[in-house]
Design goal:
The chain contains seven helices and seven strands. It is rod-shaped, with a radius of gyration of 34 Å.
């Protein structure tokens, strides 16, 4: 998530519904198109030079995964919508990277959009990317904002001829994509949990302003995390409770398990939010205690100097006749009295356990 993108939703003001306008940050210079085509016997993976090369796979008897990286080329999106029969409003949603996770069901395809999250340990930042999926009878089309994703293990599994993926259809492929994205949420939350534990130790020992800023950052990120995950419960729940002809009965148990994962993630987020809130209370309490310690020391010092100032004040008066001024050892007696008073008060404070 990190730094928020500058929203460009205003670009759509005044345009007709279904207008193809890319809303969001341009994260790649050129769009790349990847195709993975497979069945039980064969596997093919290649990069396409144009979107037209993918058109024959729409009605093939194999399972085809078409991955589009980069969303700013509206001409390519228009061609995809026209050839694969995708409603213009769906293409509009794909181009808008500010979408909340949702699902839409059509006669010939299912549209799902969600956020793909990763955690950069070098800068301790959550990185967010929108990914949209179109499930057809023989093809799954995914749309990403940039190169690099969490789906590489899935590609490796497809290469394995013994993998379950090679035996099932496009509905299971979409489930597998959703599953690996959602499972990666657990990894991100585990990284946040580790950072919270480390912050807790630091706050207990040496709380400072940097810790407070990090606590605020984590609190904000968890709120945003919850905003992204909460609609996913409805997305997955919709797939499990409704009967779609594109979702095979054999895939439904996996989708129900996926719903359990989303539910567990929601609970983890709430738990981590409580921990961050508690961490904020610990920080404020420790800062207050440290301030109280400082004020206590300063108060004790001021209290010790009250009688010393009183003594110094008496002998600082400009009276002509003060008997002690003529004493031979008056100066040393005065210092002895000052040291005795200060020592007596320090002893008293220590007996009271104020020091």
């Amino acid at each position: 998530m990190g730094k928020k993108k500058k929203k460009k939703t205003s670009l759509k003001i005044g345009l007709s519904p279904g207008a193809f306008v890319h809303v969001g940050e341009k994260k790649v210079d050129t769009i790349s198109i990847e195709l993975i085509d497979y069945d039980i016997q064969k596997f093919t993976s290649k990069k396409l030079n144009s979107i037209e090369e993918a058109f024959p796979f729409k009605d093939s008897q194999t399972v085809s995964w078409l991955n589009i990286i980069g969303l700013h080329n509206t001409e390519i999106m228009q061609k995809i919508g026209k050839h694969f029969g995708v409603h213009p409003l769906v293409i509009e949603d794909i181009l808008n990277t500010e979408q909340r996770p949702k699902i839409e069901i059509y006669d010939d395809y299912v549209f799902v959009t969600l956020k793909m999250l990763s955690y950069n340990k070098d800068v301790k930042e959550i990185q967010e990317e929108q990914i949209s999926l179109l499930l057809g009878r023989h093809v799954v089309i995914s749309f990403q904002e940039r190169e690099g994703d969490v789906l590489e293990p899935l590609r490796s599994r497809i290469k394995n001829s013994a993998s379950r993926l090679r035996k099932y259809g496009t509905d299971y492929l979409m489930y597998a994509i959703l599953d690996i994205i959602i499972d990666h949420y657990f990894y991100v939350l585990e990284c946040i949990d580790e950072e919270i534990s480390l912050l807790e130790d630091n706050v207990m020992n040496t709380p400072d302003q940097n810790h407070l800023q990090r606590i605020h950052y984590l609190k904000r990120e968890l709120v945003n995390f919850r905003r992204l995950v909460w609609p996913m419960r409805e997305v997955v729940s919709s797939l499990t409770r409704d009967e779609y002809h594109l979702i095979q009965e054999s895939t439904e148990p996996f989708l129900r398990d996926l719903y359990d994962h989303v539910y567990n993630i929601s609970e983890m987020i709430e738990s981590l939010r409580d921990m961050v809130t508690g961490l904020m209370d610990v920080y404020l309490s420790n800062v207050s205690n440290r301030m109280n310690e400082v004020m206590k020391v300063l108060t004790i010092i001021a209290t010790i100097f009250i009688p010393l100032s009183f003594i110094a004040g008496i002998y600082g008066m400009n009276f002509e006749f003060m008997p002690e001024l003529n004493w031979r050892y008056g100066y040393f007696i005065l210092w002895g009295l000052i040291i005795l008073a200060a020592g007596g008060m320090l002893y008293f404070f220590r007996r009271k356990k104020w020091l």
